[in-house]
Amino acid sequence: MSNARHGLDELIPAAKQPSPESPRSSSRDVALQRAIAEAEAAMRALKLAKDPNEQARQSTRFKQLLQEAERIKHEKNWKSPSSRNNTPADCEHSKAIVQELRQPESTRIVPRAEQILLLKAGYLNGFKFPPWSTLPAPDEFERKDGEGLFTDTPELPLSEFQEDVLDDWKRPSEAMPPPTWFSGDRTNLGPSMSFARKIDLVQDAATDCSVVASLCAGVARAEHGHGKILGTVIYPYDQEKARPAMAANGKYVVRLNFNGCSRKVVIDDRLPVSSTGRIIHVIDRRNPGLLWPALIEKAYLKVRGGYDFPGSNSATDLWILTGWIPEQVFLQSDELEPNQFWSRVHTSFNHGDVLITMGTGKMTAKTERELGLAGEHDYAVLDLREVDGQRLLLIKNPWCEGTSWRGKLNESQRSDVAPTEERAEQSLIELDDGIGPLQSSRDLLNADEQLSSGTFWMDLDNVMQHYESIYLNWNPALFTHRADVHFAWDLTSLRSSGKTPRGQSASLSSHPQYSITPSKSGIVWILLWRHFKNSIPDDATDEQIEEGRYSIDLQGHISLMAFSSGGRRMLLPEKHIEKGWYVDSPQTLLKLKDCKPEMPITIVPLEQDLASVEHTFTLSVFSHSPAEIAPASVRYPYALTLASAWTIDTAGGNAHSPAYSTNPQFAIAVSRKTIISLLLEVTQGDLNVHVKLVHSRGQRVYGIRSKDIVFDSNEYRRGCCVSEGQGLEPGQYTIICSTFEQSQLGTFTLTAESSQPMQMLLLPREGAGRIRLELSTVAFRQEQDMVAARIVAKRLARFYAVVKPLDTAARRGTSSANRSLIRMSIESGRGPHRHIYIASNGGEYADCGSGVRMEDVDLRPELTQQGDGLWLVLDRRYVSAEAQEERFTIELYVDQPDAVTCGVWRAWEE
């Protein structure tokens, strides 16, 4: 052995781990000197190393030791690297990893209704998955005398291709390693739970890239020296050897997290064995007899419906496999800040607190060939490093024949990079002088290891360019407290009960809503996870339904919205403090940075295009202090809901329309001063709507003046609108519900909420119970300002009249400056003998844009036959140049048929 090799062997033990005495050093200087000494040992080992793999290991170790020295030098809390603060991943991690953190458990008492919901959610694909209660007993995996091997039925479904290549379902002794890979003497071959070489998991004849990428990410965490997650996932488990154990009876229990809780998934050890070189289950290329990955995969696919797997994303898969909090980061989002993103992810990855996978979007075949990437495919991230200014990710394609990226790394911004040994020595000098360490060279990084097929380094800039999403699964132990609530959301009731349509324009009135109140200020993460539910096709047979052999329904998108509303229910999806992306994943995460006990947060689940059935969900709250989660409080104690519609006769349009007064109207009465809120929701169609409350003594309104308006919903809003008033005085009022355009038809509901008791009723539509009599059109010629028609009553009759403009300009709501002012009256005589019995608007001329109405009048036959009779007079004032010739229609609403007649229009003078 050479002196160089001998010196290297002496240095490696000292360079592998930080000194255990460093955390117990009596002073910062002592701790810093010890850390520098360890880094110097790693540097000397780096100089002596000749093998590229050894160089890479020592380079990585040297960087880690420099970072530890930096931490001791600059951090206030330099003494406690073994007791990390439980800070969420958005915050700076700054403590070294020594032990695994304790997982938070929900302390909320689950009501019986929610317990029943969880029990029902355990039936899936024809199997029962009960909530996890206790660890399985060791004898559950023993094989008793005369007892056969455990067999789980039915066998999991395979795809058509998998069926074609299937030889049989076989026990591990025959299945591992794959017979077609080792077809000769298998004397020394067989299944194992241990491995001699670095694990290299791949998929082949299964479409579960997300599952295999998830397993690879978990393996990478263990390879970086962090605690193994398997100890809480698969049983039996050998705690002494820290690996799964072989079950003598062929039975395994896997703990998976889905449908509201951790659940017990029981499988046998039979695997689908191929008759060809294609492998149906996950396989380790370097340790082809390794069994536990295939068992975990089988348990997961049992939950998801079988090996004929339609696909998922690895954030969902890791959430199910590990219970680590899933987050989807959209790389094309303008909100993504690369430097901040890298900082939090890189630091958290080094602490073992985040598992990282990635997914591509759709790509053309040409793009796939050029880049060496697969479209709509999940990849695992095995390592993160910063080298010479490069932010690099070690990425693994889980497909066994997967290609590697063919692009180029972006060149370092540094042009004066010194040789490796010189930079290492300079780093130590600069550390002692208070200057930050330089990065090791990229050449060393490239020689870090012999990369397996499909594994490659890629810089962050190219990742952001070529990948669609990064999936982050965060260690829930970063939080000290957790609370879960389980609920059902019945979307069939929305369709059948005539409530508001679903979609972005709908109100939140029918959405489940929850109030979250932390006991201390701080960060709170809220995760909405949708329960898997079987979808039964219309053509399903009784046998399929009985066996549960049908697909899991995952159509549609979900999101979350947060409001600073004191924990009260919200009506509109506006003025939120945070809103998540709509995702087609079964989980969505919302992160709140500064929640305060004095201001409870309202959380509202959102959906788009979910099936119109009952869905069940779980809402999980992660925090640093106990948090109370409860249904959001009602806005006001009193509420009334009435339904109506805009029909051909009642779709009057906005306030500038001449038919505005024909819109549906409601009378509302309050006996005490109150706060009142009005919610108008369209139940059919996609209309822009408005609601207005006016002074009117609870009567139908025919004309609106500004001073009559108490409050309204401001701009027209699609789908629904809200109008709210504070301190409404006792009295009777009228509510007008309108669409923006005239003749827009649809149904709606009006919900009034108030702090004091109230009464509300739908007013009869205009002309209800009356005979409508439409008179001939009035046509004013130039310089003509008054016309009249004789009116005759055949018997005692009661009626009112409405005049509306027919001109296009008037109908479009032109400025009042370009319209005449109109008055309508019933008169007798002329000149000094003129007598006005009744006139519209109290005798005042009014803008004709929305029509003019004359109140009810009683006519007796003898009155209309005296002298020159009675005349219905229409006159105009302030005629503009644009309105010299105008046309109007006049309608009479009479309380009995054939009681009133009206003659032809003629010119008239006062």
UniProtKB/TrEMBL annotation:
<keyword id="KW-0378">Hydrolase</keyword>
<comment type="similarity">
    <text>Belongs to the peptidase C2 family. PalB/RIM13 subfamily.</text>
</comment>
<feature type="active site">
    <location>
        <position position="397"/>
    </location>
</feature>
<dbReference type="InterPro" id="IPR022682">
    <property type="entry name" value="Calpain_domain_III"/>
</dbReference>
<dbReference type="InterPro" id="IPR038765">
    <property type="entry name" value="Papain-like_cys_pep_sf"/>
</dbReference>
<feature type="region of interest" description="Disordered">
    <location>
        <begin position="1"/>
        <end position="32"/>
    </location>
</feature>
<dbReference type="Pfam" id="PF01067">
    <property type="entry name" value="Calpain_III"/>
</dbReference>
<dbReference type="InterPro" id="IPR022683">
    <property type="entry name" value="Calpain_III"/>
</dbReference>
<dbReference type="InterPro" id="IPR036213">
    <property type="entry name" value="Calpain_III_sf"/>
</dbReference>
<dbReference type="GO" id="GO:0004198">
    <property type="term" value="F:calcium-dependent cysteine-type endopeptidase activity"/>
</dbReference>
<dbReference type="GO" id="GO:0006508">
    <property type="term" value="P:proteolysis"/>
</dbReference>
<keyword id="KW-0788">Thiol protease</keyword>
<feature type="active site">
    <location>
        <position position="377"/>
    </location>
</feature>
<keyword id="KW-0645">Protease</keyword>
<feature type="active site">
    <location>
        <position position="209"/>
    </location>
</feature>
<protein>
    <submittedName>
        <fullName>Cysteine protease</fullName>
    </submittedName>
</protein>
<dbReference type="Pfam" id="PF25435">
    <property type="entry name" value="PalB_C"/>
</dbReference>
<dbReference type="InterPro" id="IPR051297">
    <property type="entry name" value="PalB/RIM13"/>
</dbReference>
<dbReference type="Pfam" id="PF00648">
    <property type="entry name" value="Peptidase_C2"/>
</dbReference>
<feature type="domain" description="Calpain catalytic">
    <location>
        <begin position="126"/>
        <end position="476"/>
    </location>
</feature>
<dbReference type="InterPro" id="IPR001300">
    <property type="entry name" value="Peptidase_C2_calpain_cat"/>
</dbReference>
